[in-house]
Amino acid sequence: MKTAIILSLLSFLLHIHTNAQNTIKGRVTDKVTRQPLESATVTLQQGGDGNIINYTLTDADGRFQLSSSSLKDRTITVFYMGYRKKTIPVLISRPLTIELEQEAVLLKEVQIRPGRVWGRQDTLKYDLTRFTSSKDRNVSDVLKKLPGINVEENGTIKYNGKVISNLYVEGMDVSGGRYNQINNNLKADAVQAAEVIEGHQPIKSLRGKTFTDDVALNLKLKPEVRSQWIYTVMAGGGYGEKALYDASFNVLQLSRNRQTVYTYKANNIGRNLFSDQQKLASGNSFDRVTDSNPPIFLPLPEPAMPLSQKRLLFNETHTASANRLYRLDEEKQLRFQLGYIHDRTTRQYGSEEIYYFAQDTVHTAINRHDRLKTDCLNGEVNYEDNAASRYTRENFSFAGTWKSGVSDITGDNVIFQKIKNSQWELKNYFNQLYTKEKYTWGIRSYIRYTHLPALLTVIHRNLPVSSADNRLIATCIHRRDELNLPDNINENTYRTVTGQTYESIPTEYEEMNIDNAYTDNALYGMRKKNGVNYQLTGGFRGELSSVRQENSYSAPRYSFYTIPRIEWERTDFLLTAAATVWWNRLPKQSYSRFYAAPSLYFRYKFSPRWKMSLSGSLDESEGGIQDIYPFHYREDYRTVVKHTGKVAVTVRQLYTCYLEYKNTVKEFFWTLSASYSHNRYNLMAERNYKDGNFYLSSVERNHSSYSYALNTIGSKGVYDWNLKTSLELTLARNEGKQLNENIVQNYRYDYLRVEPKIVWAPSALFEVEYKATVSCGGSGIGKDTRLDPLWDVAQRLTLSLGFHDTDFRLSGEHFYNDLSKDQHLNTWLADVSLIHKSGKWRFTASAMNLFNKEQYRYTLYSAVQSYTSWVKLRPREFMVSVQYQW
């Protein structure tokens, strides 16, 4: 019924005809110097009563663009401080050239103070010189102070809760989405302004034709920094449990025609460098391709812990990257990227887990010592020809990741586990688009090939063992390939390795080699008529997966699809409707299905400050090779997987409501979003526990899950106090079913999260930063099991004091954790640092974990389990470093 309603609306909207919008373009300049005037206010008014119909601000080149349903009796008025106001009648025959004359302004006992934040309809500008202080090391430190912008721990940038799609420097993307290489290395005082571009459309030939909800961030450098080569070298050393090092060397050159970023970093002090190589921005939505994730059957252990990684990461990491971007002319760009990371990580942790099954409650307890090794190499070549009448993009990338992990696991018995997991990947994306007047057409193609060899070795030891035995078994695991050991490691093996005789030890060995190829190719076209954009896309997707275990298994799949879509946009509202029509085929499973996935989106602007949107969609998807693989395999030391080989089908309904308010003059930003999701499945996952192993399988049984979420974010800046405050609130509920021993249980999980943040710099001598996360989770499982709500509080307070060229910084963290209804734990951590700046030199001395806390404990709930965990913390450590920049 819901599908029919949405399709009926789509059919109705295809017959809508509306009046055309008129576009008014122009340029504002100084009458004497003929230089463009940026951020001049341009208003479109009704000639008779002077009512404002539309408004905007000029861009860096003094240009503006306004739209109006009628040009009858319309005037343009331009305001700019220090210039005479000018009003002229609207002329549609040609672009307007408006020259302003300077005038003397007498200010008597009046202080004129321009704001730090201002904007026009789609672009918001921050004057970073008003936010930057001497205590900020890089651009990332300054972005954290901007109202409406949030920088997460891994460097991801969000504006009003939305992840930015692109980060530019002077309008160019040298990092290809890996923008931590910019934000963590570009000095804070090199940037003059930051621009947030809403509805960002980087493809020139699509501007004004099709809707996008992307948000981009553009950094504008100070004139004296543009084209300048910036070199930064840093070296540091210290001591904790062992000798410490921290070093980096960066080279940046960021002009409007050519940009370069070279970086090298190394440390063993717990600083995570993987984020420098991580692609945080997904790029513009028109160039995104829906790709199925490559299957990983034997994953390495990567536990999620509610603590900053600098507290618990025992690492030895080296990373290097090279980025070059050439602007060949005004329309063409060529970018090269190459990156490498080498990492050795150890971690010690453990947990007491409780699984609430239908007929029993299972308790497990383990302690682990993991040693992980990772090497990653990636590269990319990207060419773009972005003109007003055409768009060409050719992108080729490769990536290789080699991982291995050895774990010593103790619980009811002693287990040694080794996993080797590699991934080699090649990708190519091509998009060719042409535009002529009202018509746009093109073709895009995406191809990916991935090879994933994986090896698992598990050695069980049911009797107590000595440390000598532990070292012996670990040696066998590490040297298995070198010694060409057989699958079953027995006493003869140990005699070969050590010359000693040991009892036979049971060993399990799993090897899987996966190949996965995926392609998506489409033709598309669009036409804009009378304010309505009609689009049609048709294409083909294909995927071939093969798994070589004891048996070889392959599973091809392919689909044909077409997507009719319309966009109806006026000055105040936008309505889009689409219906993806699919025909999917999995020949090996004798599965074919034809279905439609409709969607609706409505946005309304009440005023320049208020905006609302509503959306609804119905979608259907099939599971991947991991869901239909019919043979059993061991995923890790205690998990065995065996699926039925049936195709898993998920039907999802998603409805969202979004409300936004922004007042740039008062530096206030607020959003409210609510969502409801209903998923229907034809297969149910079953988990059973027996003899120390979890057995995962799937059973044909229809069932549903539901999720509700409410999120609100408020951010307020106060100019007079140099203050930024923000508050984020999240409420969520998930409901579903679990299967155990053929008994179905209902479960419900409720979650609350509150995150206040404050950044306050009342003077150049003093700065305060406060951040807290307050969360509470509770579960209900079946009819009788209710898990008491547990509270977790994490607070961090950083105080900075400045005396001339020296800064003193003290950081304290407090963690409150409910371990159970009657037991809780408080943990206090503190760091201190002293920073002295002398010209281009920067000297730092610091001490971490002053109280020398050794362990952190916490309890968390998931839908059908609870676990109380502990993790080893980095000890008290002392560091000194020196940095030079020129």
UniProtKB/TrEMBL annotation:
Keywords: Signal. Transmembrane segments: none annotated. The keyword Signal applies. It comes from Phocaeicola dorei CL02T12C06. The keyword Transmembrane helix does not apply. Residues 1-20 form the signal peptide. InterPro entries: CarboxyPept-like_regulatory. Gene3D superfamilies: Carboxypeptidase-like, regulatory domain. It holds the Pfam family CarbopepD_reg_2. This is TonB-dependent receptor-like beta-barrel domain-containing protein. SUPFAM superfamilies: Carboxypeptidase regulatory domain-like, Porins. It comes from the Bacteria.
